[in-house]
């Protein structure tokens, strides 16, 4: 008995193949690229960027026409892998809504163009994602090479990335429409950095703990046992007696040899708004494998919601740790953890 295949289903599958390849590269990279931020990982990402650059040039010039579809799938798979790595590195510590929205806008743009079958518009989006990914990569590479976290290097590395995109565009045949996506996407990236929605890369917040019984000698504390809602991202609960202090421990990764002044900004939620309470500053020097560690405390933290921002002094936020302070109802089970 012959197997009948609906041509409409085949056409629909072909339409979604490029987007599927992009998502496949995104997932593949999340599952395989692990470990600390170092030159080895940055080199692997650089190899991704070089591969995608070559594929974009070949695709734009119509090379290997017989294999054009496979070139397209390979391009989007590599681009998805590169983009996912940079999103994870960029926003792993920020816990900001922008990171999620930024990815979803790009994804929705690709899906919308698959529905509308606007191939030219889809290529603009692909080049826009490519430009943003390259800028994100150099935002890490340049500060690491110079052992500095000065904000000026964000703008310098972004300008260098845009210059490289222009070189690739020239090699690809100077198709005017392909340059519009990179200019718009990189412009948005610079704009959101300028207003503080992007963490001060290449600083990365690696870990954080909150507790009431911090032991400085071993840099450990025993946080309260957390329920299901905390595992889903709700603010962790800290139970404290009236005389206990609430401690916040933070580990931040930085380029070897780099110096920076960071701060913990304490806020309390009062009638639905966050009120500033304290600011503690710390001077760090990068290079420690598990991140530079520092801590601050709030001795008279009243019951309710608090948050602590880890930020560059007077600058952008690396990460936010939210806390729900409660008075103890019974003996909570705790297990000591090292930062």
Overview of this structure, please?
There is one protein chain. This protein is α+β, with helices and mostly antiparallel strands and 339 residues long. The protein has two domains: 188 residues, no CATH class; 135 residues, Macroglobulin (MG2) domain (Immunoglobulin-like). It is built from eight helices and ten strands. The protein has a five-stranded mixed sheet with strand order 3-9-8-5-6, with no helix packed on it. The radius of gyration is 23 Å and the shape is elongated. Keywords: Membrane, Transmembrane, Transmembrane helix. This is DUF2914 domain-containing protein. InterPro entries: DUF2914. It holds the Pfam family DUF2914.
Query: Into how many domains do the coordinates divide?
Result: 2
Strand order in space, largest sheet: 3-9-8-5-6
Distance between the amino and carboxyl termini: 64 Å
Form type? elongated
Structural class: alpha+beta
Helicity range = 40-55%
* Rg of Cα set: 23 Å
Number of strands: 10
Largest sheet: 5 strands, mixed
SS summary, helix count: 8
H/E series: HHHHHHHEEHEEEEEEEE
Q: Spans of 5+ residues with little confidence (pLDDT < 50)?
A: 1-15, 113-117
How much β-strand is present in the residues?
Answer: 15-25%
Summarize model confidence as the mean pLDDT.
76
């Amino acid at each position: 008995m012959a197997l009948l295949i609906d041509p409409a289903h085949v056409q629909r599958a072909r339409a979604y193949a490029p987007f599927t390849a992009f998502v496949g590269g995104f997932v593949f990279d999340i599952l395989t690229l692990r470990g600390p931020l170092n030159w080895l990982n940055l080199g692997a990402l650089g190899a991704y960027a070089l591969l995608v650059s070559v594929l974009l040039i070949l695709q734009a010039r119509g090379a290997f026409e017989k294999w054009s579809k496979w070139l397209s799938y390979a391009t989007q798979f590599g681009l998805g892998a590169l983009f996912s790595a940079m999103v994870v590195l960029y926003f792993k510590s920020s816990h900001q809504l922008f990171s999620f929205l930024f990815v979803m806008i790009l994804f929705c743009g690709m899906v919308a163009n698959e529905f509308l079958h606007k191939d030219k518009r889809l290529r603009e989006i692909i080049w826009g994602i490519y430009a943003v990914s390259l800028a994100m990569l150099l935002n890490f590479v340049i500060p690491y090479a110079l052992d500095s976290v000065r904000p000026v290097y964000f703008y310098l590395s972004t300008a260098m990335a845009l210059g490289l995109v222009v070189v690739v565009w020239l090699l690809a045949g100077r198709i005017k429409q392909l340059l519009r996506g990179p200019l718009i996407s990189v412009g948005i990236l610079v704009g959101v950095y300028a207003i503080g929605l992007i963490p001060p890369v290449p600083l990365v917040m690696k870990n954080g703990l909150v507790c009431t019984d911090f032991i400085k000698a071993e840099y450990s504390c025993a946080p309260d046992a957390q329920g299901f809602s905390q595992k889903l991202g709700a603010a962790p609960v800290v139970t404290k007696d009236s005389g206990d202090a609430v401690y916040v421990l933070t580990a931040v990764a930085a380029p070897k040899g780099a110096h920076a002044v960071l701060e913990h900004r304490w806020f309390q939620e009062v009638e639905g708004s966050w009120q500033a309470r304290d600011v503690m500053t710390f001077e760090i020097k990068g290079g420690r494998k598990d991140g530079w560690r520092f801590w601050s405390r709030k001795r008279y933290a009243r019951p309710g919601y608090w948050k602590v921002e880890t930020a560059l002094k007077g600058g952008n936020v690396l990460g936010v740790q939210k806390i729900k302070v409660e008075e103890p109802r019974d003996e909570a089970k705790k297990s000591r953890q090292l930062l």
